[in-house]
Amino acid sequence: MTDGPLIVQSDKTLLLEIDHALSQECRQAIAPFAELERAPEHIHTYRITPLGLWNARAAGHDAEAVVDSLLKYSRYAVPHALLIDIAETMARYGRLTLHMHPTHGLILQSSDNSVLEEVLRSKKVIPLVGKRIDNDIVVVHPSERGHLKQVLLKLGWPAEDLAGYVDGEAHAITLKNEGWDLRPYQREAVEGFWHGGSGVVVLPCGAGKTIVGAAAMATAQATTLILVTNTVSARQWKSELLKRTNLTEEEIGEYSGARKEIRPVTIATYQVMTTKRQGVYAHLELFDARDWGLIIYDEVHLLPAPVFRFTADIQARRRLGLTATLVREDGMEGEVFSLIGPKRYDAPWKDIEAQGYIAPADCVEVRVTLPDHERMAYSLAEPEERYRLAATTTFKNRVVEHLVNQHNEDHVLVIGQYIDQLEELSEHLDVPLITGQTPVKERERLFQSFREGETRVLVVSKVANFSVDLPEAGVAIQVSGTFGSRQEEAQRLGRVLRPKGDKRTAHFYTVVTRDTVDADFAAHRQRFLAEQGYAYRIVDADEMLYGLKPED
Amino acid sequence: MSTLTPTVRPRSLADDFRLRSDAQLKHLITNRPDLIHPVPADISQLAARATTSPSVNAALDQLNAFDLTVCEVIAALPDPTTSELVHSALQAAAGYRSDNVDAAIQSLTDLGLIWGTSDEIHLVRVARESFGAYPCGLGPAMRDARRTVRDYEENPSLVETLLADAPNQVRDILEQLMWNPTGSMKNAKRPITIEKAKSPLEWLLAHEMIVATGDTTVAMPREVSLVLRNGLFVRTLESAQVDPITNIIETIRVNDTGAHAALDFIRLVETLLEAWAIEPPSQLRSGGLAQRDFTASCELLRTSEHITALTIEVAHAAGLVNLDDSSRWVPTINYDRWLNFDDATRWSALATAWHAMPRASHLVASDLPERISVLSPGVERGFIQSLRTTALDILREAPIGSTTSAKVLVAYLDWHRPRRSSHVRANAVKAVLDEAETLGITGAGALTDFGRLIMDAPEATAALARHLPAPVDHIIVQADLTALAPGRLLAVPRRTMAVLADVESTGVATTYRFTEQSIRRAFDQGQSAHEVLTFLTELSRTPLPQPLTYLIDDVARKHGVLRVGVASIYLRCDDAQLISALQVDRRLVSLKFREIAPGIVVSASPADIVLEKLRNAGYSPVAESAEGTVLIHRPDSQRTNNRPSPTAVTVSGPSPRLIDAAIKALRAGERVEDTKKTSTHQTPRGTSTQTLGLLNEALASGREVWIGYADRSGITTERIVEPLTISGGFLTAFDLRSNEVKTFTVARITGAQYADETEEGSTS
Q: What is the ipTM of this complex?
């Protein structure tokens, strides 16, 4: 029995005491196989899941090493059943492997005949495989490589993909190290990805995921397809690539609603990829338009289902997923694992903040009370209207105004979900508004003016949730959101986390209406923040505005 | 054999038994206790019973793989056989050792499965039949019926010579048939000559290496098999026992793992019964718990079906839960006592109950075609208790820290009791080991110090108490509204925390989550915001985070704003807006609120429904008493009467005293038989004075008496009794044949004689 920092629970959660001398060492030991669930100030909670254990196997850790770390750092005796379960789960990975056979092509091989028998009996596997060559080997239709991996994962026998990758069309890409260097964690992330072949890198917003992408391209030295969420973000990728690599304007193409360029490096939006024309996805052939050597998926947690389907068909190409969180609101984490690849690297937000690469943030929830007449309307409202009513109370405008004035030195983003509310706010504060309807050119002009400091306050809709680089933003005020979406919260916080020149603290305000569904959703979203280690305070709007109870 | 003097040759099993000494009979009865249930009248009855099918099969079940093989070889040899023949039949088998075979023959004799002398061994008929028509895979003997067969037997090289010219596949077919002598073939009885034989089968038939035994069946004659096998009856004699021990691990790890498992199991029982106290599940008409309630329990305990079933069954076996008058499962009064014991005592109550219960909880979670409900009679399995004892005994006898696994333990049992080998047993072995681990009787696979002492509850309690981790007296509260108790919390704060917060993760430590509902629950149970904050501040090692204090104050602010009365339901509130909002709220339409005064509305619905609907709609009302004070809401905890304490099933054989008495009775029975044969009168006769005198004498000397006794219809029977008391015209005596104490009316005793003097009595 050690006096270790870790408590291993029989329900497969691991509780890590942060203030313990060995906590950092222990974190490194358990991070490969346990998923960080919550990281508040004192105790971090990890969970052991089959996916996590298989991720660890994919990264070359065996069950013995996992069990050893648990026994080494555990404060109390580790439940025996848990250890047995870990060994059994991990033993399931790699019993089946995908190989390239010199004569038969793609094959599924097993080291355990009974496992192969079991999976070949499944109705879902039968159409994906071909002839049985011998007891342990069965031919796989090359186009079903991804589907087979998906199905095998669901059957609980994840296959290790050793079939390798096509090199793709070579294209020289080098990083321009002018006045900057890859940060240590970025370097580790690229190395982790490259050794693993394909997979996902998890880094907080503002930690430089684009640079990880550029470095991966420089390692691959091949033509690259980059999939991003929207056009603004596509442009940003482009300008970042121009700045960080030797790529020229002519080598980078944009494939979006507006332009359809296919060049050695092509940046496409999810939206255009999933546009249907006469019932078919018209643009999916982009995947085959060139012999891509690398495909980068930005914001993997938002990857739409049709792209998954197509990704299943291109398993021979290297794939890099980038995201701030593997949490998918639709629960498709298993698809990410089997189609893009296992998690190859992740670093907790607070760690990177401690290294000074992202700014520290102060999170505050401001609670407003519904005025009497609105409260009556709220009680009478249909359930589907309630959130909108509560979230868009005009009382919030006063609070936002107060906050904008309070931070009169800083750059402020006001973020919301409902256009009416945003228009009202933009008028109330007399500041520009950016929504989905704003033309791209106008958007870029406003963002540019915000970056340069001409515009100090911007009101934005959810178009600014992702991949808009606004390093100067130091204050974000959210007035409404997509119900309880946790990843939206992470994205919005990410807007203000770029390290500031003067090292000042970022501020993140959420204005919510007390005693309504708005508060319930806010609680759900904030739980995510608190779990990332961002403690938040709650203040009453009345206190803040009228000093009923002076703030500290 | 039993007598080892070939000069006295027993003519039957009964004869053999008669020649056995008391010690030998004692050995027989000890190992086959079914023979004296009830005590047979004499040795012939004993022998008759020892040859019945159930009794013989029970005896065969006890044989290990080695003895069973020897027994099968004897069955394959013609009756009677000799020790020499048995040896020669086995000599060539792998693993043969002459002394081991002798020991096997001796133990078969001791068990009464074979009898006679070493040059004339008889196998009990039922035992012979239990090996099927062809023991050792040897077909019918044909030497007398078929000349060729006799030729093969007398000249084994002949077979080889013939096979040299045989068609190709003949050898393959012979390979198969020499260990499994029967096969099927169309029109097997057709006459075939060597010249006309075409197929390999026909060739074999023509050479009489196989013989038709029916229209479509053929068999290889025993003699041919033996020639092909070079005289082997069996290929191997398995005398090597599997070592049931897989590893030896540090005892400190064993005890720590076990102690935590023990705490975890106590927690499961407590969590389950606390929930059942509030909402007791009903018993199904067919007995047991409904599937729905069982699934709910699984969810409540957040554990597997097997562990949930185990928790329920053990709680029941320990007398902590029982059916109440309306057939619902409710915690007993014993449960309250159990709750107040310390952890170690609570554990030993559960562990002892588990050890003694004849119930196989794993069947509930198994994929049997028909589902077995937990707590139903279907869970009862007689063998499971002895399997537990066996498994624990193996660990207990091994060095400290020895671990075993289901796989090797099954292999070990398969050698020791091959006839009982089955999927059912293999599954049960796994379940027993899993359950022992869950209860902390084993830790990390080895017996814990306290598990070792499970037969002695106080000792086990003391042993566990030494290994239990010290309870923790603090929690760590975090800004995401969770709190962690980094170990087992002291009982008092644990109960308060259970009200204040929802349990999120369980195990050694507990993670709690504070929510609006959980805080409101605490307020509903009468706590105030101040009390809650003081309690948490004192318990928490870290300062309370602002969101938590805010949450508590916020709930307190809302709590009790609305007040609901019971007397024909009124609802009052100072907030006129809210009152009007309530009346127009669509979700509350069914309550039909009516405003009767400013700020007061009434409803015809009962208070509980009103409360529920309001809370569901997001309001936070409290109930009011008639005096206008706030009613404290606490769920009713229920109890029922104790179940009579469960009695452990005895699995030990008959007591030595009973065996001695049985042998006495048997011998007495023999004497009665002898007397019958030689005596001139059937039953003793005498005057009542003589009888009473003799009985009193016998009472003093403790001698056995042979009495004649007339029943109510006047029919006289004979008994052999050992008088215990005589008073008021009644004789109380131990009846040696029925093996029980009986009362006889002295007046109906026709006469009495000393049992050991009957020979003289008859001659005089």
A: 0.77
